[in-house]
Amino acid sequence: MKVLALILSVILFAGCSSPAPVEPVAVKPTPAPTPAPDAAPGKDPGDTTVKTELPRGKPGSLLSKIDRARLSAQVQQAPKAINIKQRCSFRNETGYNGSTLVEIANNEVKALSTQIAVPLHGGSCSFEGSGFRQVARAPSIELRHNDGCTVRIWTQGKQLTISYSKCSARCSNPEVFKYVWPVLIDQPSGKCD
């Protein structure tokens, strides 16, 4: 829906700056047809998914030039559930190093533990899963601790990202947290950085 709203905003903005007036259009949600009782296996007969139909524009207008099939596919594409069980470690040329253990099943965090050492700035940080509670499952996973530390986990392509914010209390020296970067895990290879 965000993609559709963005595209409609661009269309309306472009229409306001073009010499020819463009009439505003309303997007009308239409309910998906109810499948017949003998529908394909695996389909939920009670599925009430709302499909959005983009109206046709006047010939020559920006709205008429939109690839409706591609836009429809993007709007209706649901994010995939995160399922991963991985243990990895990383080190770069400056000595920055760490290790991560993450286990997520269907966007529910089962285990999470990260240790990061920042030798150039004299300290380390430890992010253990105990004490965190999961407060969001989608579009990204979010965990919070009573001390204010927040963990966000999301995927982009085949890469899983684990980021930490407001977690300086979990470091040997609170100043070290300024040098902690998100942990990136390449899911096909299992390598992290």
From TrEMBL:
As given in the record, the signal peptide range reads 1-22
Q: Which UniProt keywords apply?
A: Signal
Locate the region Disordered: 27-59
- What name does the UniProt record give this protein? Uncharacterized protein
Origin species: Uliginosibacterium flavum
